[in-house]
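Hi U.,

Before I forget, here's the chain from the pilot set. I'm dumping it here mostly so it's searchable later in email.
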Amino acid sequence: MPLARPVIGPEEEQAVLEVLRSRHLSLGPRVPEFERRFAARVGAAHGSAVSSGTAGLHLALRAVGVEDCAPEDEVVTSPFSFIATANSVLFEGATPVFVDVDPDTLNVTPEAVASAVTERTVALLPVHIFGYPADVPAMERLGLPIVEDGAQALGAVHADGLPVGGHGHPTIFAFYANKQLTTGEGGLVTTGDAAVKQRIDSERNQGRAPDMQWLDHDRLGFNYRLSDLHCALGLAQLDRLDDMLDGRARAAAWYREALAPLAARTGLELLCEDRDGNRRSWFVYVVRVPHGVDRDETIRALAERGIQTRPYLPAIHLFAFYRERFGFREGQFPVAEDAAARGLSLPFFPEMTQDQVARVVEDLTAVLAP
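Structure:
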């Protein structure tokens, strides 16, 4: 059983075919249309489509002032995320400062972030991990620029009723094939600031301003564009987004019900339920194997049964590059390290059936509690 499976139908095929037949494959009308519709979906004033979530993080950080930094310039973020979160800080010469995550939500908390803020802090980079909203409104009170990593959180809603991406800070979304919405590859930055959009639009296109002539550039830029082919696929996906989110939530509910007896017997841990008005958008279905269980051996045993799983996610500070460059070591962020050591992503996709969920749970039970 595959770990993930995108929903692709005749509508997506037709949308891409129309662009191919138009011969207008890039810098065409599908890009601004996708930007407008996506931004409206998350309650943002503006959106800028980019080639990946990583590209979005880079441009968003530059837009809030994390640009041409010295190593003394610090960005507070999470060690429990995809590595691009921290790497994007390094792209501009700043230093990622990690704080440990909450044991329930696995997000950084406002209190932990505040404890790491110093006169060297230039920005905050909270991550809405596994689609659960981080407490951005509380972090706003620290008065620092914020970039939100919402790569896993399309459709998530804060306790104040605003969707992730709707608070006005530059917020990045990613559209890899396992995400809530896919364009194959790609990303998008939402923002409430027209000047931020104008800057990102320029820098994604080699520094060319909208009113400039061909091959005329007035700032440093990059090739971070997203094509009309990708955006056409994204537009078709937006049309079915509610159904895909509902399918993910349905599969997650089946998993929670079916895994409850195993969790009670073995100490298997499930992701937290929604609380305090926050609503998760289901990206992956991750469990934490019981303490004392070899997670990697569990992956191998499930693979022998035809069930594809993955460790999810490694702790960034324990990657060799980060250990060698910054001297990180085990034990510095124990909650994140424990989640990384025991995290197991199970097969999960919008069209998953209850029978498929039951099969995964049956095989997981056979491995953990024979």
